[in-house]
Amino acid sequence: MAKVELRNYRKAQTPVRTLLRLFRYFKHCRLILISAVASIIVYTVATIASSYLMRPLVDLLENTVLPHSEVYAKYLALLIGLAGLYLLSAVTNYLLNRLMLECSTVIMRELRTELFAKMQRLPVSYFDENTNGSLMSYFTNDIEATNELLQHSITQMLISAISLVGTIAMMLVLSMKLFAIMVVLAGIVTVVVRITTRVSSRSYRAQQKNAATVNGFIEEMISGQRDIKVFTHEEKVMEDFSTINEALFTASTTATTITSIVGPILNNLSHIFYAITCAVGVVWLTGEGAGGILITFLQYIRNFATRVSQISEQFNSIMLALAGAERIFSVLDLPNETDEGTVTLERRGDEYDWVPQDGVPVPLRGDVRFHDVDFSYVEGKPVLQGLSLYAKPGQKIAFVGSTGAGKTTITNLINRFYDIQGGQITYDGIDVRSIKKDDLRRSLGIVLQDTHLFTGTVMENIRYGRLEASDEDCIRAAKIANAHYFISHLPQGYDTVLYSDGANLSQGQRQLLAIARAAVSEAPVLILDEATSSVDTRTEKLIERGLDGLMRGRTVFVIAHRLSTVRNADAILVLEKGKVIERGSHDDLLALKGKYYQLYTNMTELA
Ligand SMILES: Nc1ncnc2c1ncn2[C@@H]1O[C@H](COP(=O)(O)OP(=O)(O)OP(=O)(O)O)[C@@H](O)[C@H]1O
Ligand SMILES: [Mg+2]
Question: What top-level class would CATH report for the domain 13-175+285-332?
């Protein structure tokens, strides 16, 4: 069954540190923030003051001394004051929301940029170890959570906190005695709330967890729809779905039942609380203005209760949102791909040069050598052991061997997606570790085993191999890759737009484009990892001829399961468990009657 990540339901581990770090981003919108905080203060003061006006209003109602006309005048003044305060709080409320929105938009842009830039700087191993889905969720869930935090939660928290302090201060001014009673009652309510929320949040969490499982399952089944149909698993899938859907139903029922009980209890509790304060107030408060004090105080009690419950709700959502921000920061803190290389490789016209210390450029020939290379992806599980090989300029070297033998790994090491643990790899006699990574990779034309086509035109996708290449260069490369014919038959030819990894092309056509892309780079070394595995053998022969012309005097590595692809290589290396077990030309290896002979005869038998 689908494994679902419950990352959204975890709270932040270091909330304070994360919050402080997030606050540092406010430097990008300092002025807006200051104005927003000022609006928040004015807003809360205005709302607290408007409640306070109750007191003189009630006093006026109770008044028996002043003449009518004077009472009306005061009454009018108070109403105008009240209207003014409401207006002020409405305006500042609008302002503070608007300003915080602006602020968070600015910060979001910064965070997204930093995060995306980080993705470009992380080593390939990071992408091998993490699924696309979990990487995407940094940009979707976590960014969204942080945005919510900045836009609403923090603002609301500030408003509630300032307002709470103001309310308490006003209560103290009004009546110390009533305040003391309220503190005792508030203590009781807190205990009850704590118990009930523990019960309700447990059931709520269970519901969330089940919902995540259902969603994860649906997502996986939708993306795997083809495979489900191929293996006719529809009924099995439906059964599995019914089970987890039923579990969600049960959890939701429990959650809603509990919430529907807890809600009224809490509501009634606050009513009782209100009634007790009212009763005590009537008995305790005597003398002139007692009515005004009591009614105003009761107003503040409501205010107090709302603010406290707001703070506790916001506290939870802030902790969840901070977990999102925390995850973003943890990615930003990952070490970048390091590059200690100093030697530069430069392209001059059709040739590449490398520049040694004395500064006189030397043409790059494309001589690649492995000396006793040891490598493992995971410590203790060697993939390549004591591997030695050489490819002289102009040679075509082929790797064959069973699945998982380590062929792709060799290419990962030449372009330094991974670094070796023992031995040495040299490129024209220079240790690859001392060459600048960008230069190194630019000087290698590689067709990856699982190559990716980007959304864009066919022309743009070919030009990906070398951004400076002209249209003519791209078309020439497409002809070499034998892709020109099918491209000219596409609806808009080279301007046809490819969508989602070239889904509107056949597998083989995608490979031809990938080869064209490598050909346009005109690099001194070309590496083809199963580049023609989905291409028919006749087309493959044509590509081979084209590439032979392009790569004359340059080095080509070919990896292929189809042995006809590698037949004419200068040397064929047979790999097994990370070691070269046979090497030689096609004829040599056949005469040897070893592994290659076995593979070859098996293949022809099967064919
Ligand atoms: N990113 C990785 N992390 C850990 N182990 C890996 C990684 N990539 C490959 N391996 C392991 O290294 C070994 C060699 O893999 P490699 O991809 O080089 O095989 P291959 O010869 O190219 O196979 P195929 O013919 O299927 O393409 C395999 O056992 C594989 O499981
Ligand atoms: Mg491979």
Answer: mainly alpha
- Per-residue pLDDT tens over the stretch 50-84: 989 988 888 888 877 888 888 888 889 999 999 99
Is the CB–ligand 1 distance for residue 382 below 6 Å?
Answer: no
Nearest-CA residue for atom 14 of ligand 1: 406
Atom 3 of ligand 1: nearest residue by CA position: 377
Ligand 2 geometric centre to CA of 406 (Å): 7
Q: Specify the residue with its C-alpha closest to ligand 1, atom 25.
A: 403
Ligand 1 site, residue 407, Cβ cutoff 6 A: yes
pTM for the predicted model, two decimal places: 0.78
Q: Give me Rg for the CA atoms of the chain.
A: 36
The verdict on the CB of residue 406 being under 6 Å from ligand 1 is yes
Cα distance between residue 315 and residue 335, in whole Å? 32
**pLDDT tens per residue across span 334-381:** 999 988 888 888 887 777 787 776 777 888 888 999 999 999 999 889
What is the rounded distance in angstroms from the CA atom of residue 481 to the CA atom of residue 268? 78
Residue 486, amino acid: F
| 451/454 Cα distance (integer angstroms) | 10
Q: How far apart are CA 376 and CA 408, in angstroms?
A: 13
Structural tokens at position 123: 């080593």
Domain extent listing, the chain? 13-175+285-332
